[in-house]
Design brief:
- By secondary structure, the chain is of the alpha+beta class.
- It is 29% helix and 29% strand.
- Strands 8-7-6-5-1-4-3-2-9 form a nine-stranded mixed sheet.
- The two termini are 29 Å apart.
């Protein structure tokens, strides 16, 4: 986020994210991820949320429109209640575009790419618990060290404790979760309708 705000790749034109893996044989009663009541629509809420948040964090804006597709293969018990794949395209006020994809039924990947007028930020793997890699290609080309991934949970707990003790604002408040759910609802609505959904600044559908 600091690199993007500093213009490390210039003006952002495109963000691409994908979080996917192939879920093993299972049914709604055997794995919570296959149950609509427990998992919602499927991979978007579980794994694709990382791509959704990456686009928001890196571009630093709320989208003004979303189009989307969702797919459920016929006859596969894993997807009797949930989608196998969800993909969406977002347009932002600045003109930037984000392409987000997530799947429970494709070979594993976890990346985020940002293409700007002066370069590219590549995070691959991007949002796992270890093995993160990040580099910039282009005018400001360099390899970057993401830091110790093991410290993220300790940092979250410390921040929460500090907020309670000092009555300070939480960096990731409940309103952020509500925002994300509104965007998820917009993705599913766009996929169901087969048309672009227009959004208000808070993420609600117009």
């Amino acid at each position: 986020m600091k690199l993007m705000k500093a213009g490390a790749v210039g003006d952002i034109r495109l963000v691409r994210t994908e979080q996917s893996y192939r879920m093993g044989p299972t049914g709604p009663g055997e794995n919570w991820r296959a149950s609509r009541a427990l998992a919602g629509g499927g991979p978007l809420e579980d794994y694709g949320i990382y791509g959704l948040q990456s686009a928001l964090y890196l571009i630093g804006e709320m989208p003004e429109s979303i189009s989307a597709t969702a797919f459920r293969p016929a006859g596969d018990p894993r997807f009797a209640e949930i989608f196998a794949h969800v993909a969406s395209q977002w347009r932002f006020p600045s003109g930037a575009v984000a392409h987000l994809a997530t799947s429970y039924d494709s070979a594993g990947t976890n990346f985020a790419h940002v293409r700007g007028t002066d370069g590219v930020l590549i995070m691959d793997p991007a949002t796992g618990y270890s093995g993160h890699k990040m580099r910039i290609e282009g005018r400001n080309a360099r390899e970057l060290t993401p830091g110790d991934p093991g410290g993220q949970f300790a940092g979250q707990l410390d921040h929460f404790a500090d907020a309670v003790r000092d009555n300070a604002a939480i960096r990731t408040p409940g309103e952020m979760g509500l925002r994300d759910l509104r965007l998820i609802e917009a993705i599913y609505a766009a996929a169901a309708a087969g048309k672009t959904v227009m959004l208000a600044p808070d993420g609600t559908m117009r």
